[in-house]
Structures are given as structure tokens and as C-alpha cells.
Amino acid sequence: MWRRIVGGCVLAGAATLVALISIEIAVRALHLVPAHFWQPDPLVGTRLIAGKSGWWTQEELEFRVPVRINSQGFHDVEHAFKKPDGVTRVLVLGDSFVEAMQVPLEDAFARRLEHDLNGNADGNGSYEVISMGVSGYGTAGQLLTYLHYGRAYAADVVVLAFYPGNDVRNNSPVLEPVLHPVYADDGTIERIAGPQPRKAPAGHSPMRWLLENSQAYFFVRKRILTGQPALARWLMDVGLMAPEALQEVPMYDGIPVDYWVYAANPPPEWEDAWRHSEDLLRQFRSTVEHDGAHFVVAIVTARERIYPDSWEQIVEANPNMRKVAWNLAGPEQRVQRWCADNGVQCVTLSPAFLAHRNEGRRLHWVYDGHWTPAGHALAAATVAAALREQSWLSARPRKSG
How far apart (Å, rounded) are the C-alpha atoms in residues 214 and 217? Predict the structure, then answer.
């Protein structure tokens, strides 16, 4: 009898092990868990890992994209530092919209912009577009990236992709929860303080090692965290899930902090965030023009600004938002005013997106919120058209230093 019981337990254990291994293989083969592409950096808080390859996706599986980071640590093709003769270089800086992990590289904004510019070249030379977007960067991180990495490419045009949806918050040392900008007394940006790496607990067990290296575990955990928050909290209470796995959304008066940028009368901290943002834009413009290049601001669209149903879903999920007056066009209007006051070319993408949003192809992913391939193509076409209107784009390119 005992032999039958023991034999049954062994068979059940073996079957369970085979099932778990099969699930692990399936999750890896189908690329259901995104790779980790970022590493801490003492200057900009976080940077992409040069040469890293993997797949990018999210829990709703709207996309599964192969990704390779180039040798300079950006999601782009390789670019030589020395500019070829006769080439006009356009350098694009931004956050995750420019980083463009959500689409194949050939569909990304920078690659589409290069295609559009060359497809309409007027015979005075070819165009090269270099992309330096990184997730989580605000204007502070983008300016540091230009100063320490971007200016080496001797670009003729620098396009700053400004995303009001979180760039203003990113630039605030008070509102930004992860990549904290550190400013000098005169308001210049010194560095971005990234999150401190978590120390591994003493007595690293084999089970913990297995869980930390199991993509199936991370896939299931993410599903629970996003779809069953009550179950996730119970698993944390009983010790089956680490508390740090649940990343709470920063809130203010029962409303996610990010959305306060759209408030008609935001809390006082937001005026300080805007002051930092506008100071950074001035520093950016001054630096780029000192380098002999043209500075252009492109205002990136937000899903909730383009698709009213997305905004309604956000309000529905956060009932306190019904007590506040909102102006979704307010942030881009403020950036437009700054550009007009400072003589900077500003390309506002929302009119084109609003005009084409009902043509059958989504311009923003439904759940993820970033641009789809169609969104990247429309953004690139809009910026290319605006640049082609400028006489200086076809002027003789400056030589590499």
C-alpha cells in the first residue's frame, strides 16, 4: 500500500514537474515576458544596455517585438560619429515614444522620419536621422543625453519630442517618483538620481533563484498584479509574493498624479514643474543653437487626448476626477506659447492625429498607450512636412567637429 502511495506521489510530482517545464518552455518560445533592457546610470539615472537583444511585449499582448539596442545604447540602427559629406543630420531625443519598443524598428518614428525626408529630398543631399529616446526620461534626462552623447554627432537639426503626459512631472524633483532630477542652485540640471538597486536577501534559497529566473512565474505574477489586485495583496500577506512586486500608482486627492497636468487649476507643485520644464527648454535651445544646429520641439500626442473613450475610462476608474475641471489641450497649448515667445519652431502633432483617428487604424495602442506603427508613420510624416517648409533644412550641412 505504502509503495503505491509513494509511487503515486512520485508520478504526480513528475507530472507536475513536466507540466511546469512545458509551461516555462512555452512562455519563452512565445516571448510572453519582456526582456529587461535598462541598467542604472550615475548621470541619467537609467540607460539602455548597449548590444542587448530580446523581445518587448506587455500583459495584453498587443505586440511582441524583437528588439536590439545598438552599440551606443539606443534603440536604433548604428550611426558613425563622423558625419558623411553632404548629409544633413537630424537628432531626435525623447522618452519611450521615441525609444519605440512597441513597434518593429523599421516602423519607429525616427526611421520613418528618415525615410520621409529622403523620399522627398530636393537633390541637395541625403538625410540621416539618429534616435536617442529612452523610457522615463523627461526634458532633464533628454538634455543630459544631448550634452554627453548627442552633440558628438554634429547634428544639423535637433528635434525634442516633448510628451506633456509625463515630461512635466519627470522634470519636477517633487512630483517625479523614480528618476529624480537634481538641479544646481542656478536651475541647471546636474544629474538624474535613479532608484537604488534592491539588496538581495540573505540566504538566497534555490526556490527563490528558480522563481527569479522563471519567465512563467513572472508571466503569471504580472497577470495577477494587473488583473487580480485583491489576490495579489493576499499572496503578499501570506508571504507568497514580494510586497515590492506591487507598484502603487502615485495619487493626489484620489487621482493619479500624472493626470493633474491636464487640470484647469492644478496643485501648486505643477507650476514649479512647469517652471523647471521651461527653464530646461531654454537651456536646450541655447545649447543646440550654440552648437550651430536648429532646435525644434515636436509635441507628442497622448492616447487620452486623441481618443475620448480612453479619457472616459480613466475618469470612470478614478471617480474623484469628476470633481475637477480638465483641459486636455492645456499642456500642449502652454508648450506652444513657450515656443512662440522664444522663437522656436513647434510641431504640434494632435491636429493630424485628431483628423486621422477614425480612419480604421489605431494610432495609439488601446492598452499600452504608445503609438502603433500607423501612429509612428503619421507623426513622422507630420514632422517631415514641417521641416521641409524650412529653408535651412536644405542648406549646406555643417561638418563634424
Answer: 5
- Nearest C-alpha neighbor of 377 from the set 100, 178, 149: 100
What is the number of structural domains in the chain? 1
Helix axes 373-388, 109-119, angle to 10 degrees: 40
Provide the CATH number for the domain around residue 167.
3.40.50.1110
pLDDT digits (tens, 9 = 90+) for 219-262: 666 766 666 667 767 666 666 666 656 667 788 899 999 999 99
pLDDT in tens, 257-292: 999 999 999 999 999 999 999 999 999 999 999 999
Rounded alpha-carbon distances, angstroms, from residue 102 to 55, 56, 251: 10, 7, 27
Pairing of strands 345-348, 64-68: unpaired
Q: Report how far residue 321's alpha carbon sits from residue 314's, in angstroms, rounded to the nearest whole number.
A: 9
Strand order in the sheet with 294-299: 126-133, 87-94, 157-162, 294-299, 345-348
- The tens digit of pLDDT for each residue in 92-144 reads 999 999 999 999 999 999 999 999 999 855 545 699 999 999 999 999 999 99
- For residue 199, tell me if it sits in a domain: no
pLDDT (tens digit, 9 = 90+) per residue, 31-87? 677 889 999 999 999 999 999 999 999 888 899 999 999 999 999 999 999 998 889
Among the listed residues 242, 210, 212, 206, the one whose alpha carbon sits nearest the alpha carbon of residue 224: 242
Q: Name the maximum alpha-carbon separation found in the chain.
A: 91
Whole domain around residue 385: which residue ranges? 82-188+250-394
Residue 271 included in any domain:
yes
Q: For residues 158 and 292, what is the distance between their CA atoms, to the nearest angstrom?
A: 10
Residue scoring higher pLDDT (370 or 397): 370
- Mapping DSSP to helix (H, G, I), strand (E, B) and coil, where does residue 163 land? coil
- DSSP sequence for 253-268: TTEEGGGGGGBSS--H
In a domain, residue 256? The reply is yes
Within a domain: 299: yes
The whole-model pTM stands at 0.89
